[in-house]
């Protein structure tokens, strides 16, 4: 499964499309999900106007937690690819992978953070 952000509707930061994606992964149980950013879109009107309830990093961590915990039972491998529009990440090219020191131990073998650009060798 491949998905590309932003994972919010254009008129709110509700992340309903992200919740729908988590349900799809839980139901279909794909072996691999490649998830392209942006996860916190720098071009979203509410982000541009600083109408977030937390920091950019906090919003990203909540997205990450939603995806990782919501797909744990499916056992799918998750690959996170950054976007230049990810407001919480370095806006340089090539982009380094997202840092994620808080990743739970049980998820480290199935959650992968890659750079942009990258080459993925699947199986």
Characterization of this structure:
There is one protein chain. By secondary structure, this protein is an alpha/beta fold. It has a single domain, classed as Purple Acid Phosphatase, chain A, domain 2. It has three helices and four strands, in the order βαβααββ. The protein has helices at residues 16-28, 45-48, 56-71, and strands at residues 2-4, 32-36, 77-81, 111-113. It has a four-stranded parallel β-sheet, with no helix packed on it. Strand 1, helix 1 (16-28) and strand 2 (32-36) form a beta-alpha-beta unit. It starts with a strand and ends in a 10-residue tail after the last strand. The mean pLDDT is 92. This is DNA polymerase alpha subunit B. One of its GO terms (cellular component) is alpha DNA polymerase:primase complex. InterPro entries: DNA_pol_a/d/e_bsu, DNA_pol_alpha_bsu.
